[in-house]
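PROTEIN DATA CARD
Card holder: Mur ligase central domain-containing protein
Chain length: 213
Origin: marine metagenome
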Amino acid sequence: MIVGTSYFDGSIAILGLARSGMATARALMAGGNQVLAWDDSPERVKAAAQAGIPVQKGPDFDWRGIAVLVPSPGIPLNHSTMVSVRTAGVDILGDVEILWRAMSERQFVGITGTNGKSTTTALIGHILDHARQTVQTGGNLGTPALSLDALWAEGTYVLEMSSFQLDLTPAMSFDIAVLLNITPDHLDRHGSMNAYITAKRNIFRPGRLKTAV
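Structure generated from the sequence above:
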């Protein structure tokens, strides 16, 4: 598990308590952060409470004192909480962004595309592993980002990135970025093909980027 370093000036709200949400809550709490979570599933809320994760009764957070919202990637952007957090001026980050900030000295390889990204991510991870490189593979594929093992500085994270996840990485810059293809998909979420393409282009955010494919 990645321990989310306590660098947030305030509490952290977590919206959605499926696998990535639970992993995020555990990692952030292990790093000394204060969290407050919610999910519309009573079963997930119960499981979180039993795990010692503070939960609230509804989706309407009191944004005073909250530094950042970490939503599950599948939460629609027009969800009432997503609308209210933008109005309140609170930052929105995804779990992959938190992983990148916590493990910033490691190499990050990001793979996105409408089709083929799971296979490509698994293949790159397999090649690096057989080359005796220290590697962790996850993201949209399999293991949630903050459930991956912490790597030494020479390690590499190979992450499958959906457009939903890329929408939640406001600063993240991959060392190696791969865009396989783009065809119309998730337009109900993004609103237009142009918006979908814009989300995918985040894989190529400058900064650390050395190789773009």
